[in-house]
Amino acid sequence: MSDTYIIEVGSQPAGIVVRTPGGFCFFAASHRFNQLEGRIFRNAREAERAARELVSGVTLAA
What is the pTM of this model? Predict the structure, then answer.
């Protein structure tokens, strides 16, 4: 299992997530995703979902 993942929304890089003791920490690739900067996610998929929600402005059901 990898410790680092690149998160993209469409073809736009959103950021990377890095495994930490508490989950995966998000590092934004552009100002558009600064709202997620430093946030801890359970897994990379959860971080990707949050980035998509931020772009679309719609909250997806868990």
Answer: 0.86
